[in-house]
Amino acid sequence: MGRKELFSVVLLTLMIVSGVVLYNTSINHSKQLIVDKKAPQEHPAFTQRELAERLAGSLRIPTVSYEDRSTNISVFLQLHEYMESKFPRVYRELFVHKLGEENLSLLFEWPGVNHGTPNDKPALFASHLDVVGVPEDTLDKWTVDPFAGIIDEEFIWGRGSIDDKQGVFAILEATEWLLSLGHKPKNSIYLGFGHDEEISGFKGAHFIAEWFKERSITIEYLVDEGMTLYRDFPIPIQELALIGLAEKGSVTVEISAHSKGGHASLSTKETTVDIVSKAVAKISDNPMPVQFSAASPFHKALEYMGPEFGNFALKAIFSNFWLFDPIIARLATMDSLASVNVRTTAAATMISGGIKSNVLPTKTTAIINHRIVPGDTVASVVQHDIDVINDPRVNVTIVKNEGLEPSPISSEVSPAFKLLSQSIREVFPGTPVIPSLFVANTDTRHYWDIAKDIYRFCPTKMTPSDLSRFHGIDERISISNYFEFILFYFQLIQNHSDLGTS
Ligand SMILES: [Zn+2]
Questions:
Q1: Strand pairing partners for 421?
Q2: Are residues 342 and 309 in the same domain?
Q3: Where is the Peptidase M20 dimerisation domain (predicted)?
Q4: How far is the CA of 446 from the centre of ligand 1 (A)?
Q5: Per-residue pLDDT tens for 218-255?
Protein backbone atom coordinates (compact mmCIF):
# COMPACT_ATOMS: atom_id res chain seq x y z
CA MET A 1 0.00 0.00 0.00
CA GLY A 2 1.34 3.40 -0.95
CA ARG A 3 1.43 6.48 1.23
CA LYS A 4 -1.63 7.92 -0.41
CA GLU A 5 -3.69 4.79 0.10
CA LEU A 6 -2.59 4.57 3.73
CA PHE A 7 -3.65 8.14 4.29
CA SER A 8 -7.05 7.40 2.74
CA VAL A 9 -7.54 4.33 4.98
CA VAL A 10 -6.66 6.32 8.13
CA LEU A 11 -8.96 9.15 7.11
CA LEU A 12 -11.80 6.78 6.32
CA THR A 13 -11.38 4.99 9.66
CA LEU A 14 -11.42 8.30 11.52
CA MET A 15 -14.55 9.35 9.69
CA ILE A 16 -16.30 6.09 10.50
CA VAL A 17 -15.27 6.23 14.18
CA SER A 18 -16.39 9.82 14.61
CA GLY A 19 -19.59 9.03 12.75
CA VAL A 20 -20.33 6.19 15.18
CA VAL A 21 -19.42 8.38 18.17
CA LEU A 22 -21.75 11.14 17.01
CA TYR A 23 -24.54 8.72 16.20
CA ASN A 24 -24.30 6.94 19.57
CA THR A 25 -24.29 10.29 21.34
CA SER A 26 -27.38 11.46 19.48
CA ILE A 27 -29.38 8.32 20.31
CA ASN A 28 -28.25 8.10 23.96
CA HIS A 29 -31.46 9.35 25.51
CA SER A 30 -32.09 9.81 29.22
CA LYS A 31 -32.82 6.59 31.08
CA GLN A 32 -34.93 8.52 33.60
CA LEU A 33 -38.57 7.66 34.18
CA ILE A 34 -41.17 10.25 33.39
CA VAL A 35 -43.57 10.36 36.32
CA ASP A 36 -47.00 11.89 36.41
CA LYS A 37 -47.92 11.39 40.08
CA LYS A 38 -46.69 13.80 42.74
CA ALA A 39 -46.17 13.35 46.44
CA PRO A 40 -48.49 15.29 48.77
CA GLN A 41 -47.31 18.65 50.11
CA GLU A 42 -48.27 18.13 53.72
CA HIS A 43 -49.09 15.58 56.39
CA PRO A 44 -52.78 15.50 57.37
CA ALA A 45 -52.15 15.37 61.14
CA PHE A 46 -48.73 16.86 61.88
CA THR A 47 -46.71 19.87 60.81
CA GLN A 48 -43.14 19.23 59.61
CA ARG A 49 -41.92 20.52 62.94
CA GLU A 50 -44.12 18.12 64.87
CA LEU A 51 -42.85 15.24 62.75
CA ALA A 52 -39.30 16.42 63.47
CA GLU A 53 -40.10 16.46 67.19
CA ARG A 54 -41.36 12.86 67.04
CA LEU A 55 -38.03 11.82 65.48
CA ALA A 56 -36.03 13.97 67.92
CA GLY A 57 -37.62 12.06 70.82
CA SER A 58 -35.91 8.90 69.57
CA LEU A 59 -32.53 10.66 69.37
CA ARG A 60 -32.77 11.35 73.10
CA ILE A 61 -32.67 7.59 73.74
CA PRO A 62 -28.97 6.69 73.38
CA THR A 63 -29.18 3.24 71.75
CA VAL A 64 -25.42 2.93 71.31
CA SER A 65 -24.13 -0.45 70.15
CA TYR A 66 -21.53 -2.05 72.41
CA GLU A 67 -20.16 -5.55 72.02
CA ASP A 68 -21.34 -6.17 75.57
CA ARG A 69 -25.05 -5.60 75.12
CA SER A 70 -25.94 -6.35 78.74
CA THR A 71 -24.89 -2.80 79.63
CA ASN A 72 -27.79 -1.11 77.87
CA ILE A 73 -30.65 -3.47 77.06
CA SER A 74 -33.07 -1.19 78.90
CA VAL A 75 -32.23 1.71 76.57
CA PHE A 76 -33.35 -0.32 73.57
CA LEU A 77 -36.53 -1.34 75.39
CA GLN A 78 -37.15 2.32 76.09
CA LEU A 79 -36.90 3.02 72.34
CA HIS A 80 -39.37 0.18 71.64
CA GLU A 81 -41.81 1.74 74.10
CA TYR A 82 -41.36 5.16 72.56
CA MET A 83 -42.07 3.76 69.08
CA GLU A 84 -45.17 1.96 70.30
CA SER A 85 -46.51 5.15 71.88
CA LYS A 86 -46.01 7.15 68.67
CA PHE A 87 -47.32 4.61 66.16
CA PRO A 88 -50.42 3.05 67.73
CA ARG A 89 -51.95 1.94 64.41
CA VAL A 90 -48.76 0.23 63.25
CA TYR A 91 -48.58 -1.72 66.50
CA ARG A 92 -52.28 -2.55 66.41
CA GLU A 93 -52.75 -3.43 62.75
CA LEU A 94 -49.43 -5.02 61.76
CA PHE A 95 -47.91 -8.17 63.24
CA VAL A 96 -44.94 -7.28 65.42
CA HIS A 97 -42.16 -9.86 65.76
CA LYS A 98 -39.42 -9.21 68.33
CA LEU A 99 -36.33 -11.13 67.23
CA GLY A 100 -32.65 -11.73 67.88
CA GLU A 101 -30.63 -11.05 70.99
CA GLU A 102 -32.93 -10.22 73.92
CA ASN A 103 -35.71 -9.73 71.31
CA LEU A 104 -34.32 -6.27 70.58
CA SER A 105 -34.72 -6.33 66.78
CA LEU A 106 -38.13 -5.62 65.29
CA LEU A 107 -39.90 -7.04 62.26
CA PHE A 108 -43.33 -5.69 61.31
CA GLU A 109 -45.44 -7.80 59.00
CA TRP A 110 -48.12 -6.13 56.88
CA PRO A 111 -49.81 -8.87 54.88
CA GLY A 112 -50.98 -7.77 51.46
CA VAL A 113 -54.12 -8.85 49.64
CA ASN A 114 -51.87 -11.34 47.79
CA HIS A 115 -50.40 -12.71 51.02
CA GLY A 116 -50.01 -16.48 50.99
CA THR A 117 -50.60 -16.73 47.23
CA PRO A 118 -47.96 -17.23 44.53
CA ASN A 119 -48.81 -13.73 43.27
CA ASP A 120 -47.44 -12.05 46.38
CA LYS A 121 -44.34 -9.93 45.77
CA PRO A 122 -43.20 -8.91 49.24
CA ALA A 123 -40.85 -6.03 49.96
CA LEU A 124 -38.69 -5.44 53.01
CA PHE A 125 -37.96 -1.86 54.07
CA ALA A 126 -35.07 -1.87 56.50
CA SER A 127 -33.23 0.46 58.82
CA HIS A 128 -31.56 0.11 62.22
CA LEU A 129 -32.26 1.09 65.80
CA ASP A 130 -28.70 1.37 67.10
CA VAL A 131 -26.17 4.16 66.68
CA VAL A 132 -22.44 4.54 67.10
CA GLY A 133 -21.22 6.25 70.25
CA VAL A 134 -19.73 9.72 70.56
CA PRO A 135 -16.07 9.60 71.66
CA GLU A 136 -15.40 11.71 74.77
CA ASP A 137 -12.73 13.78 73.02
CA THR A 138 -15.10 14.90 70.23
CA LEU A 139 -17.97 15.93 72.52
CA ASP A 140 -16.84 19.55 72.78
CA LYS A 141 -16.63 19.82 68.99
CA TRP A 142 -20.38 19.28 68.65
CA THR A 143 -22.58 22.35 68.20
CA VAL A 144 -25.21 20.67 70.43
CA ASP A 145 -25.42 17.76 72.89
CA PRO A 146 -25.54 14.75 70.50
CA PHE A 147 -28.16 12.94 72.59
CA ALA A 148 -30.42 15.91 73.43
CA GLY A 149 -32.58 15.74 70.27
CA ILE A 150 -32.24 19.46 69.58
CA ILE A 151 -34.27 21.07 66.79
CA ASP A 152 -33.45 24.58 65.58
CA GLU A 153 -35.02 26.61 62.78
CA GLU A 154 -33.67 24.32 60.09
CA PHE A 155 -32.20 21.09 61.46
CA ILE A 156 -32.82 18.11 63.71
CA TRP A 157 -29.47 17.48 65.43
CA GLY A 158 -28.09 14.39 67.06
CA ARG A 159 -26.56 10.96 66.82
CA GLY A 160 -28.86 8.80 64.72
CA SER A 161 -30.44 11.66 62.75
CA ILE A 162 -28.90 10.42 59.47
CA ASP A 163 -27.75 6.97 60.59
CA ASP A 164 -30.32 5.61 60.88
CA LYS A 165 -33.26 6.49 63.12
CA GLN A 166 -34.56 8.87 60.47
CA GLY A 167 -35.04 5.72 58.36
CA VAL A 168 -36.89 3.84 61.11
CA PHE A 169 -39.14 6.79 61.87
CA ALA A 170 -39.80 7.81 58.27
CA ILE A 171 -40.86 4.25 57.39
CA LEU A 172 -43.14 4.10 60.45
CA GLU A 173 -44.59 7.60 59.84
CA ALA A 174 -45.44 6.66 56.26
CA THR A 175 -47.01 3.39 57.39
CA GLU A 176 -49.03 5.05 60.18
CA TRP A 177 -50.20 7.70 57.72
CA LEU A 178 -51.30 5.13 55.13
CA LEU A 179 -53.04 3.04 57.78
CA SER A 180 -55.00 6.13 58.82
CA LEU A 181 -56.16 6.40 55.20
CA GLY A 182 -57.26 2.77 55.22
CA HIS A 183 -54.53 1.69 52.79
CA LYS A 184 -54.31 -2.06 52.25
CA PRO A 185 -51.25 -3.15 50.28
CA LYS A 186 -51.72 -5.60 47.43
CA ASN A 187 -48.28 -7.14 47.93
CA SER A 188 -47.03 -7.82 51.45
CA ILE A 189 -44.72 -5.39 53.19
CA TYR A 190 -42.20 -6.07 55.93
CA LEU A 191 -40.42 -3.45 58.01
CA GLY A 192 -37.17 -4.73 59.48
CA PHE A 193 -35.18 -2.86 62.12
CA GLY A 194 -32.04 -4.53 63.45
CA HIS A 195 -30.53 -3.41 66.74
CA ASP A 196 -26.83 -4.08 66.15
CA GLU A 197 -26.04 -2.91 62.61
CA GLU A 198 -23.11 -0.85 63.85
CA ILE A 199 -21.44 -4.01 65.13
CA SER A 200 -22.25 -6.09 62.02
CA GLY A 201 -25.81 -7.29 62.67
CA PHE A 202 -25.04 -10.87 63.68
CA LYS A 203 -27.43 -10.69 66.65
CA GLY A 204 -30.14 -8.66 64.93
CA ALA A 205 -30.58 -8.58 61.14
CA HIS A 206 -29.19 -12.12 61.02
CA PHE A 207 -32.26 -13.32 62.94
CA ILE A 208 -34.65 -11.24 60.84
CA ALA A 209 -33.23 -13.07 57.78
CA GLU A 210 -33.63 -16.41 59.60
CA TRP A 211 -37.30 -15.62 60.20
CA PHE A 212 -37.84 -15.39 56.44
CA LYS A 213 -35.76 -18.50 55.72
CA GLU A 214 -37.75 -20.59 58.21
CA ARG A 215 -40.95 -19.61 56.38
CA SER A 216 -39.43 -19.96 52.89
CA ILE A 217 -40.44 -16.39 52.07
CA THR A 218 -38.46 -14.73 49.29
CA ILE A 219 -38.46 -10.96 49.26
CA GLU A 220 -38.87 -9.39 45.83
CA TYR A 221 -36.70 -6.42 46.79
CA LEU A 222 -35.26 -4.83 49.87
CA VAL A 223 -34.50 -1.18 50.53
CA ASP A 224 -31.98 -0.34 53.24
CA GLU A 225 -29.61 2.52 54.07
CA GLY A 226 -26.57 3.18 51.90
CA MET A 227 -26.34 5.71 49.12
CA THR A 228 -28.25 8.99 49.29
CA LEU A 229 -29.18 12.15 47.41
CA TYR A 230 -25.95 13.88 46.53
CA ARG A 231 -25.88 17.62 45.89
CA ASP A 232 -23.09 19.92 44.74
CA PHE A 233 -20.51 17.22 44.15
CA PRO A 234 -17.81 18.01 41.56
CA ILE A 235 -19.74 16.39 38.72
CA PRO A 236 -21.76 18.28 36.13
CA ILE A 237 -25.14 17.23 37.55
CA GLN A 238 -26.58 19.34 40.38
CA GLU A 239 -28.37 16.60 42.30
CA LEU A 240 -28.29 12.82 41.93
CA ALA A 241 -30.17 10.04 43.65
CA LEU A 242 -27.70 7.16 43.82
CA ILE A 243 -29.01 3.68 44.50
CA GLY A 244 -26.43 1.15 45.66
CA LEU A 245 -26.83 -2.06 43.62
CA ALA A 246 -24.03 -3.75 45.50
CA GLU A 247 -21.59 -3.16 48.30
CA LYS A 248 -17.91 -3.84 48.62
CA GLY A 249 -16.60 -6.76 50.59
CA SER A 250 -13.83 -6.47 53.13
CA VAL A 251 -10.97 -8.35 54.66
CA THR A 252 -8.48 -7.38 57.33
CA VAL A 253 -5.07 -9.01 57.15
CA GLU A 254 -2.26 -9.10 59.63
CA ILE A 255 1.27 -8.93 58.31
CA SER A 256 3.91 -10.10 60.74
CA ALA A 257 7.60 -10.92 61.01
CA HIS A 258 9.46 -12.64 63.86
CA SER A 259 13.11 -12.77 64.97
CA LYS A 260 15.15 -14.00 67.92
CA GLY A 261 15.73 -10.44 69.11
CA GLY A 262 18.93 -9.34 70.86
CA HIS A 263 20.68 -6.08 71.67
CA ALA A 264 20.40 -3.26 69.14
CA SER A 265 24.22 -3.03 68.99
CA LEU A 266 24.21 -6.48 67.36
CA SER A 267 21.77 -5.32 64.66
CA THR A 268 21.44 -7.42 61.54
CA LYS A 269 20.74 -5.78 58.20
CA GLU A 270 16.99 -5.72 58.71
CA THR A 271 14.93 -5.85 61.89
CA THR A 272 11.33 -7.12 61.93
CA VAL A 273 10.31 -3.43 61.82
CA ASP A 274 12.22 -3.03 58.53
CA ILE A 275 10.73 -6.21 57.08
CA VAL A 276 7.13 -5.37 57.93
CA SER A 277 7.49 -1.71 56.89
CA LYS A 278 8.76 -2.80 53.49
CA ALA A 279 5.88 -5.28 53.15
CA VAL A 280 3.36 -2.53 53.95
CA ALA A 281 4.99 -0.22 51.41
CA LYS A 282 4.82 -2.91 48.72
CA ILE A 283 1.08 -3.35 49.31
CA SER A 284 0.49 0.41 49.07
CA ASP A 285 2.61 0.70 45.92
CA ASN A 286 1.01 -2.26 44.12
CA PRO A 287 -2.77 -1.96 44.22
CA MET A 288 -5.04 -4.65 42.87
CA PRO A 289 -5.92 -4.32 39.16
CA VAL A 290 -8.87 -2.14 38.18
CA GLN A 291 -12.25 -3.90 37.91
CA PHE A 292 -14.22 -1.99 35.33
CA SER A 293 -16.52 -3.86 32.98
CA ALA A 294 -20.10 -3.54 31.77
CA ALA A 295 -21.16 -5.52 34.86
CA SER A 296 -19.53 -3.08 37.32
CA PRO A 297 -21.99 -0.92 39.27
CA PHE A 298 -19.70 2.06 38.59
CA HIS A 299 -19.91 1.38 34.85
CA LYS A 300 -23.69 1.33 35.12
CA ALA A 301 -23.55 4.62 37.05
CA LEU A 302 -21.69 6.26 34.19
CA GLU A 303 -24.10 4.78 31.63
CA TYR A 304 -27.01 6.37 33.49
CA MET A 305 -25.20 9.67 34.05
CA GLY A 306 -23.99 10.07 30.44
CA PRO A 307 -27.24 11.31 28.91
CA GLU A 308 -27.78 13.70 31.83
CA PHE A 309 -24.60 15.68 31.13
CA GLY A 310 -25.23 19.03 29.47
CA ASN A 311 -21.64 19.13 28.19
CA PHE A 312 -21.45 17.56 24.71
CA ALA A 313 -17.92 16.17 25.03
CA LEU A 314 -18.78 14.43 28.31
CA LYS A 315 -21.98 13.10 26.85
CA ALA A 316 -20.07 11.78 23.82
CA ILE A 317 -17.53 9.99 26.04
CA PHE A 318 -20.21 8.38 28.20
CA SER A 319 -22.22 7.34 25.16
CA ASN A 320 -19.30 5.43 23.63
CA PHE A 321 -17.92 3.03 26.18
CA TRP A 322 -16.80 0.69 23.37
CA LEU A 323 -14.18 3.31 22.53
CA PHE A 324 -13.47 5.12 25.79
CA ASP A 325 -13.62 2.34 28.43
CA PRO A 326 -9.82 2.07 28.85
CA ILE A 327 -9.44 5.85 29.17
CA ILE A 328 -12.32 6.11 31.65
CA ALA A 329 -10.87 3.29 33.76
CA ARG A 330 -7.49 5.03 33.78
CA LEU A 331 -8.97 8.40 34.71
CA ALA A 332 -11.07 6.79 37.44
CA THR A 333 -7.96 5.58 39.23
CA MET A 334 -6.65 9.14 39.38
CA ASP A 335 -9.68 10.52 41.21
CA SER A 336 -10.03 9.66 44.89
CA LEU A 337 -13.85 9.38 44.85
CA ALA A 338 -13.92 7.35 41.62
CA SER A 339 -10.99 5.07 42.37
CA VAL A 340 -12.64 3.38 45.37
CA ASN A 341 -15.38 2.36 42.93
CA VAL A 342 -13.10 0.55 40.51
CA ARG A 343 -10.56 -1.18 42.67
CA THR A 344 -9.99 -2.95 45.94
CA THR A 345 -8.39 -0.58 48.43
CA ALA A 346 -5.69 -1.25 51.01
CA ALA A 347 -5.46 0.91 54.14
CA ALA A 348 -2.63 0.25 56.58
CA THR A 349 -4.43 1.06 59.82
CA MET A 350 -2.23 -0.28 62.64
CA ILE A 351 1.41 -1.16 63.21
CA SER A 352 3.24 -2.32 66.28
CA GLY A 353 6.64 -3.78 67.16
CA GLY A 354 9.45 -3.43 69.60
CA ILE A 355 9.46 -2.71 73.32
CA LYS A 356 12.60 -0.66 73.95
CA SER A 357 14.83 1.63 71.91
CA ASN A 358 17.94 -0.54 72.31
CA VAL A 359 16.37 -3.99 71.90
CA LEU A 360 15.86 -5.69 68.54
CA PRO A 361 12.14 -6.33 68.08
CA THR A 362 11.18 -10.03 68.19
CA LYS A 363 7.87 -9.40 66.52
CA THR A 364 6.38 -6.66 64.36
CA THR A 365 2.83 -6.65 63.04
CA ALA A 366 0.81 -4.41 60.76
CA ILE A 367 -2.89 -4.46 59.98
CA ILE A 368 -4.19 -3.81 56.49
CA ASN A 369 -7.90 -3.21 55.92
CA HIS A 370 -9.04 -4.03 52.38
CA ARG A 371 -12.38 -3.05 50.86
CA ILE A 372 -13.07 -5.48 48.04
CA VAL A 373 -14.66 -4.37 44.78
CA PRO A 374 -17.04 -6.77 42.96
CA GLY A 375 -14.85 -8.87 40.69
CA ASP A 376 -12.22 -9.57 43.38
CA THR A 377 -12.66 -12.02 46.27
CA VAL A 378 -11.32 -12.38 49.82
CA ALA A 379 -9.01 -15.15 48.58
CA SER A 380 -7.73 -13.19 45.56
CA VAL A 381 -6.97 -10.16 47.73
CA VAL A 382 -5.00 -12.16 50.31
CA GLN A 383 -3.11 -13.94 47.52
CA HIS A 384 -2.31 -10.58 45.95
CA ASP A 385 -0.81 -9.40 49.27
CA ILE A 386 1.32 -12.53 49.53
CA ASP A 387 2.48 -12.17 45.93
CA VAL A 388 3.48 -8.52 46.11
CA ILE A 389 5.22 -8.90 49.47
CA ASN A 390 7.11 -11.88 48.04
CA ASP A 391 9.14 -12.40 51.20
CA PRO A 392 9.16 -15.80 52.99
CA ARG A 393 9.97 -14.10 56.32
CA VAL A 394 6.58 -12.39 56.32
CA ASN A 395 3.37 -14.09 57.46
CA VAL A 396 0.10 -12.92 55.98
CA THR A 397 -3.03 -14.05 57.84
CA ILE A 398 -6.68 -13.07 57.86
CA VAL A 399 -7.69 -11.48 61.15
CA LYS A 400 -10.19 -13.73 62.92
CA ASN A 401 -13.77 -13.52 61.64
CA GLU A 402 -12.82 -10.81 59.18
CA GLY A 403 -13.71 -11.59 55.60
CA LEU A 404 -16.79 -10.54 53.69
CA GLU A 405 -17.12 -11.16 49.96
CA PRO A 406 -18.47 -8.32 47.79
CA SER A 407 -22.27 -8.56 47.62
CA PRO A 408 -24.16 -9.85 44.60
CA ILE A 409 -25.05 -7.06 42.15
CA SER A 410 -28.77 -6.27 42.03
CA SER A 411 -30.59 -5.41 38.82
CA GLU A 412 -30.97 -1.85 37.58
CA VAL A 413 -33.62 -2.90 35.05
CA SER A 414 -35.94 -4.85 37.39
CA PRO A 415 -39.54 -3.71 37.95
CA ALA A 416 -38.51 -3.03 41.57
CA PHE A 417 -35.72 -0.64 40.52
CA LYS A 418 -38.27 1.13 38.34
CA LEU A 419 -40.64 1.40 41.31
CA LEU A 420 -37.91 2.89 43.43
CA SER A 421 -36.97 5.40 40.72
CA GLN A 422 -40.60 6.36 40.32
CA SER A 423 -41.05 6.94 44.05
CA ILE A 424 -37.89 9.05 44.22
CA ARG A 425 -38.93 11.19 41.27
CA GLU A 426 -42.41 11.71 42.67
CA VAL A 427 -40.80 13.41 45.66
CA PHE A 428 -37.77 14.93 43.91
CA PRO A 429 -39.01 15.83 40.44
CA GLY A 430 -36.25 15.98 37.84
CA THR A 431 -33.56 14.38 40.00
CA PRO A 432 -31.77 11.68 37.98
CA VAL A 433 -31.79 8.23 39.60
CA ILE A 434 -28.47 6.48 39.07
CA PRO A 435 -27.38 2.93 39.98
CA SER A 436 -24.09 2.77 41.87
CA LEU A 437 -21.77 0.90 44.24
CA PHE A 438 -21.89 1.39 48.03
CA VAL A 439 -18.34 1.28 49.34
CA ALA A 440 -19.13 0.56 53.01
CA ASN A 441 -21.29 -2.16 54.61
CA THR A 442 -24.82 -2.44 55.94
CA ASP A 443 -27.10 -5.04 57.48
CA THR A 444 -27.96 -6.16 53.94
CA ARG A 445 -25.11 -8.71 54.10
CA HIS A 446 -27.54 -10.88 56.08
CA TYR A 447 -30.26 -10.66 53.45
CA TRP A 448 -28.44 -11.91 50.32
CA ASP A 449 -30.27 -15.27 50.43
CA ILE A 450 -33.77 -13.99 51.12
CA ALA A 451 -34.06 -11.04 48.71
CA LYS A 452 -33.92 -11.13 44.91
CA ASP A 453 -32.75 -7.53 44.67
CA ILE A 454 -31.24 -5.33 47.35
CA TYR A 455 -31.15 -1.56 46.98
CA ARG A 456 -29.21 0.70 49.30
CA PHE A 457 -30.79 4.12 49.30
CA CYS A 458 -31.88 6.86 51.69
CA PRO A 459 -33.24 10.19 50.45
CA THR A 460 -30.95 12.13 52.82
CA LYS A 461 -29.49 15.16 51.07
CA MET A 462 -25.71 15.16 51.26
CA THR A 463 -23.23 17.78 50.14
CA PRO A 464 -19.49 16.99 50.13
CA SER A 465 -19.07 18.65 53.54
CA ASP A 466 -21.91 16.59 55.04
CA LEU A 467 -20.16 13.25 54.44
CA SER A 468 -18.09 13.56 57.62
CA ARG A 469 -21.26 13.78 59.71
CA PHE A 470 -21.78 10.01 59.33
CA HIS A 471 -20.45 8.51 62.56
CA GLY A 472 -18.88 11.95 63.05
CA ILE A 473 -19.46 15.34 64.57
CA ASP A 474 -22.68 17.39 64.19
CA GLU A 475 -24.83 14.67 62.69
CA ARG A 476 -28.06 16.33 61.52
CA ILE A 477 -30.88 16.30 58.98
CA SER A 478 -32.97 19.24 57.87
CA ILE A 479 -36.61 19.31 58.96
CA SER A 480 -37.79 19.60 55.37
CA ASN A 481 -35.53 16.79 54.17
CA TYR A 482 -36.85 14.52 56.92
CA PHE A 483 -40.36 15.26 55.66
CA GLU A 484 -39.23 14.30 52.13
CA PHE A 485 -37.90 11.07 53.63
CA ILE A 486 -41.40 10.28 54.94
CA LEU A 487 -42.92 11.21 51.57
CA PHE A 488 -40.54 8.87 49.75
CA TYR A 489 -41.80 5.90 51.79
CA PHE A 490 -45.38 7.18 51.55
CA GLN A 491 -45.07 6.97 47.75
CA LEU A 492 -43.05 3.73 47.69
CA ILE A 493 -45.48 1.82 49.92
CA GLN A 494 -48.36 2.80 47.63
CA ASN A 495 -46.42 2.15 44.42
CA HIS A 496 -45.42 -1.25 45.78
CA SER A 497 -48.97 -2.46 45.12
CA ASP A 498 -48.33 -2.03 41.38
CA LEU A 499 -45.52 -4.59 41.39
CA GLY A 500 -46.50 -7.57 39.27
CA THR A 501 -49.38 -5.80 37.56
CA SER A 502 -47.60 -4.57 34.45
ZN1 LIG B 1 -26.26 2.82 59.46
A1: none
A2: yes
A3: 246-384
A4: 14
A5: 999 999 999 999 998 878 888 999 999 999 999 999 99
